Each structure stands twice: as structure tokens, then as C-alpha cells.
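Z., the sequence and structure:
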Amino acid sequence: MLIAGLTGGIACGKSLVAEEFRKLGCYVIEADDLGHEVLLPSGPAYAPVIAEFGRGILNEDGTINRSRLAAIVFTDPSALQKLNAIVHPAVHELAHERFRKIEANDKNAIVIYVAAILVETGGYREYPKLIVVTCSQERQLERALSRPGAKESDIRARLARQLPIAKKREFADYVIDSDGTIEETLRQTKLVFEELKKAS
């Protein structure tokens, strides 16, 4: 089994690339999805997050209101640090549980692990290959602003918090540049897939 990390900045085209890898036969695991799972009432991060941030972050049905939680942590770096210290280890554990299940069923699997901050956290070191999806900052802004409810100030703040794409490229085994057409991005993805098959 080969696990490759897939990362890039906000609105760089990670989802498009991940979906193409899925179509090509790879197993795709998204850190975001695991982040949602660990915060469910049955998840390992649920009780510690409530203990840290209070019951004010809950919906009436007892689930965590992610928007309320985000509003607290994105204006307070120390609160974000506390949240990450609870959520990241839980996500890491769940990801590895999924990897073990995939390997038990398919020894030749190629797994793509999608996470926005793989380089920032140093998590990329765990995986033999790292794919970085890049595009220009103008393109990132343009795409991010086209999303429902997007606010330019929020997007610029998120961009400022993320490591510049140029820096992420330095850690990449493969770079997919999504500045061009969708077809061009998918063509590059297929080429990377062929390389991963050779490496697996």
C-alpha cells in the first residue's frame, strides 16, 4: 500500500484533484471529513471540546455548532491552538484506523490523504509521497469568493494564516498546477497517478 499526502492552499483545486484520483481507483480520505466525525456526539473529541469551550457551542440537538466554534477560534490564536490540540490527535488516530482497514482489504491500494495543513503541522513526513496543488493567489481569491457566503476579509485572513504555496512546493514530490483549464489539471493528475503506480 502507498499513502500519498495531498495538500494545497484554500481554493487551489484540491477537491477536483482528489475526486479525479478517486475516479482513477485510489482510496481518498479527507482530513476535513474525519474532523467532522471526531466532533460528533459519538466522537472522541466531542466531550473535550465542550469541556474547553462550553455548552454555548451546542445546537439544540446537542451537536456542536461548527460556525459558533469557528467564530471563537478564528479570532483567537490561543483558542485555535487549544482546539487543534484536541482535534488533530483524534483525526490522526482515525486516519490511521482507516489506513489499516484499507490495507487489510487491498495490499496494493494507493491512498490519497487530503489535508490543508499537512506541511504546516509536519504531518507530511508520515507519508512517502506529497502532492501539492498550486495556483496563483489571484486565482485562489477569485475561486474562494465564488463560494456561497464567502467574505473577502475572511478569505484574506485564512490565506494569511496558511503557509504560502511557494513554500509548500518545496516539500512536494509532485506539483499539480491548477491555474489552467480543468482538463489541464486532470491531465496532470493522471500523470501523477501513473507515477504513484510505479512507486507503489
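The chain has two domains: 1-26+109-200, 32-106. The mean pLDDT is 92.

Let me know what you think.
H.
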